[in-house]
Specification:
This protein has 387 residues and is α+β, with helices and mostly antiparallel strands. The protein folds into three domains: 85 residues, conserved putative lor/sdh protein from methanococcus maripaludis s2 fold (Beta Barrel), CATH 2.40.420; 96 residues, Elongation Factor Tu (Ef-tu), domain 3, CATH 2.40.30; 117 residues, no CATH class. It is built from five helices and 24 strands. It has a seven-stranded antiparallel sheet, with no helix packed on it. Strands 1, 19, 20, 21, 22 and 23 form a six-stranded antiparallel sheet that branches. A five-stranded antiparallel sheet has the order 8-9-7-5-11, with no helix packed on it. α3 packs antiparallel against α4.
Length: 387
C-alpha cells in the first residue's frame, strides 16, 4: 500500500510538469508569432518611409497642380532692392506766381486727385498784407504802361517823339507785361495745373504764406515710370550683361516683368556712391495702372541666359530650418518630400542644382496642403506603385 501511494504521487508530478511545459511552449510560440508580425509591420513602414498619401479628393480641393521637370533656358539674376519713381518728363511742379496767403481753388486739394491741364488748384492773395497786394499793383502798372505804349505808337508814327523815347516806353510796357501774374481774380492770383495727371504731392496748407517761385504742388502723369535698382559694387562686372528686370512691390505678391510693360534699360552708374557703396541701375516702363510711384520693390535683374537648366516655380519650394524641399509625385495619390539644393531665382522660377532629375513630377500648386498631409498620412501595408 505504501509503494502504491508513492507510485501515484510520482505519476501526478509527471502530469503537472508536462502540462506546465506544454503551456510554456505555447506561450513561447505566440510570442514568436507576435515578434514576426511586428518585424513585418516595421519592415513595411520602413519601405514606405517619407512617402505621403494625398487622395484625389484632397487634390481637387487644394487645386493641386504638378509639372514634369525638364531642362530649359534660365536667366541668371541679381536680387537687389529698388524703388519705383516717376520719370522727370512726366512730372510738373506748380509754383507760386505771387507772394501771399494760400487758399485752395476748390474745397480741398489732396494727393491722388485727378486734374486736367488748366484746372485751377490754388489762389495766392496778398490783399490783407501791410504793403498791399503786389498782384493788384502789377495789374495797375501794366494797364498804365499799356496806355502809354499805345499812345507812343501813334506819336512815333507822326514823328512827334523820337525812336529812342518810343523804345523806353516799349521797354516799360514789356516789363509790366512780364510781371503780370497769369490769372488774377478777386480772390488773388490763381495757379493752375500745367498738365493732365494726378496730384502727387501738396507742399502747402491753407493759410500758409508763400513767396514768388515757391513750390505749391507736384502733378504727375504716371504714364511712364522708372525702376531704380541699387546694386552692390561686387556685381559691377555683370552690369554690362543686363538684359531686363522683374520686380515685386512690398505691398503685394504680384511679380511684374518689364518685358511685359514695354520696359527698357536707361542707364547704370559708372561710379560707386561713396556714402552707400551701391551703383544705380535705372529702367523705365509703362504704368499698367496699379503700380504706386515711390513704393519700394524687390528687384530681379536679368542677365545672360543659361541653357539646359533644371528650374521649378518658386511656389514649388518650401523651406525648413535652412533646408529646401519639393514634393515629388510617385503615383496618382502618393508623393515624396525631396530635399533639393537651389541656386538663383528670377522671381518666378528657381534653379535646382541637385535633388531633382529630368522627368520628375513636382507639385507647383497646393504644396502647403501636401506638406500638411505629410504629418498625417501612412501608406497601408501592401500598397504598391510604380517608381
Amino acid at each position: 500500500m505504501r509503494k502504491y501511494s508513492c507510485f501515484l504521487f510520482s505519476a501526478l508530478c509527471l502530469v503537472i510538469t508536462g502540462c506546465h511545459s506544454v503551456k510554456e511552449e505555447h506561450h513561447d510560440h505566440e510570442h514568436e508569432l507576435e515578434s514576426m508580425e511586428d518585424l513585418h509591420s516595421h519592415t513595411a513602414e520602413k519601405a514606405h518611409a517619407g512617402e505621403i498619401v494625398f487622395h484625389e479628393e484632397q487634390a481637387r480641393a487644394a487645386g493641386l497642380e504638378v509639372i514634369t521637370v525638364s531642362p530649359s533656358s534660365f536667366t541668371e539674376v541679381i536680387h537687389v532692392s529698388g524703388q519705383i519713381q516717376s520719370t522727370p518728363d512726366n512730372e510738373a511742379t506748380v509754383v507760386s506766381a505771387s507772394a501771399g496767403v494760400v487758399d485752395f481753388a476748390g474745397k480741398y486739394l489732396m494727393e491722388g486727385m485727378s486734374v486736367k491741364s488748366g484746372t485751377p488748384l490754388i489762389t495766392v492773395s496778398a490783399k490783407n498784407m501791410v504793403n498791399g497786394d503786389p498782384s493788384v499793383a502789377a495789374e495797375v502798372e501794366y494797364e498804365s504802361a499799356l496806355r502809354e505804349y499805345e499812345r507812343a505808337k501813334s506819336l512815333v508814327a507822326d514823328r512827334l517823339i523820337s525812336q529812342e523815347e518810343f523804345e523806353q516806353v516799349r521797354l516799360r510796357y514789356e516789363k509790366a507785361k512780364n510781371a503780370l501774374p497769369p490769372v488774377i481774380t478777386s480772390s488773388g492770383v490763381t495757379v493752375s495745373s500745367p498738365i493732365d495727371g494726378y496730384i502727387k504731392k501738396v507742399y502747402v496748407k491753407k493759410g500758409d504764406y508763400v513767396e514768388i517761385g515757391q513750390p505749391l504742388a507736384m502733378v504727375t502723369r504716371n504714364k511712364r515710370l522708372q525702376l531704380r535698382a541699387e546694386v552692390s559694387e561686387k556685381y559691377a562686372d555683370r552690369l554690362p550683361t543686363l538684359t531686363g528686370a522683374n520686380f515685386k512691390p512690398s505691398y503685394g505678391n504680384t511679380l511684374y516683368k518689364l518685358s511685359d510693360l514695354n520696359g527698357r534699360l536707361i542707364s547704370y552708374g559708372r561710379t560707386v556712391d561713396e556714402n552707400s557703396f551701391y551703383i544705380p541701375v535705372i529702367f523705365d516702363f509703362d504704368n499698367c495702372g496699379d503700380i504706386v510711384p515711390g513704393s519700394y520693390v524687390d528687384v530681379f535683374l536679368l542677365s545672360l541666359p543659361l541653357m539646359d537648366v533644371l528650374a521649378v516655380p518658386v511656389s514649388a519650394v518650401t523651406e525648413e530650418q535652412g533646408l529646401y524641399f519639393v514634393y515629388v509625385q510617385l503615383d496618382r495619390e502618393v508623393f515624396k518630400k525631396q530635399e533639393v539644393h537651389i541656386g538663383l531665382s528670377d522671381g518666378e522660377r528657381v534653379r535646382i542644382l541637385s535633388g531633382l532629375k529630368e522627368g520628375d513630377r513636382v507639385v507647383t500648386k497646393g504644396t502647403y496642403q501636401v506638406k500638411l498631409a505629410a504629418t498625417a498620412s501612412v501608406i497601408p501595408e501592401g500598397h504598391s506603385h510604380a517608381h
